[in-house]
Automatic annotation (TrEMBL):
InterPro entries: DUF6934 (IPR053865)
Record organism: Dyadobacter soli
Protein name: Uncharacterized protein
Amino acid sequence: MNEAFYESILSGKHMMFWFESIGRESIIKAILFRPTSEPDTYKMLLGDLDPDGSINVESRSNNGDTEKVLSIAARSIVFFLSDHPEAKVVIEASTESRARLYQIAIGREMEDLGNYLNILGFHGEKPEAFQSGKNYKKIIVSLKTDQLNF
């Protein structure tokens, strides 16, 4: 996680992060960790924050700051998991191109993140240890509990 990143503002329960994407224009983006029906499992949403407070995961801003946005997304996952150590974060991209982008970003950070996080990729319903260069429909991230002794 050596990429430059934006500062963010987080909600009181550390479930939502806001930041300003500064590129071709100024866009407020949000990252939300939304509980799923499974215990201790949260779906991560990343997108533009619309005026009504919803997160538009379909928007494609092409603001020229993808690396910074992905860096703050990675940092928000680590921060969320440090505050919710039993949680699992599910990442499912809204498009194939975004899925590739997320996988490239995770693959690039594996040397650092792999020491602290369990990262599983899914082909259908079957999980496997995340491997760079493979396409996954879904990724699940959790803390390695044996790495919590600092």
